[in-house]
Amino acid sequence: KNEVEQSPQNLTAQEGEFITINCSYSVGISALHWLQQHPGGGIVSLFMLSSGKKKHGRLIATINIQEKHSSLHITASHPRDSAVYICAVQNAYSGGGADGLTFGKGTHLIIQP
Amino acid sequence: DGGITQSPKYLFRKEGQNVTLSCEQNLNHDAMYWYRQDPGQGLRLIYYSQIVNDFQKGDIAEGYSVSREKKESFPLTVTSAQKNPTAFYLCASSYRGGFSEAFFGQGTRLTVV
Prior knowledge:
Chain A is mostly beta strands. Chain A contains no helices and eleven strands.
């Protein structure tokens, strides 16, 4: 079973700061997701990665398959970025079936004005 | 547009009552999943289904039941046997196979009083 570790668990920063959230996993994966959960609980999918780097607006996600590590970066952070960010991995060796995801516990981000 | 719809977003029930959470997808996905989130913990797998009329228990299936009569629908019933039903519930879907992208619903926050 894959073990997914996120760091930091909690992060408070000032508006405008560059934010980095990290995710490490223990065994090979087919893909990694970054999700955003706002207060009130709704989940939004930000990225799915299997290699390299993706960018959407002020958000950048990278993955290093050899190191079993991914990072989510937020540039020019804003109070509306305040949310819980969740890393989830899709296991590679599922015996031919999609056996679901393993989720990290999330990083609680607060951006202060 | 294709996607997953969970309803309702918020749900309140009295203790001892069964309650059914809806999850519908129009992505033609074979596999569907239900997860539960508790404070301070990662999302955990309750049940999953890889094909119509078949489903498997996940890590925390006790007190829950599901059905998969149609490809598009995977309702979750929280029964009175579930000792701590208050939680956030998330539905996801994907094609079968370890390299398929998973899509997520918005989630349902269930409160039992």
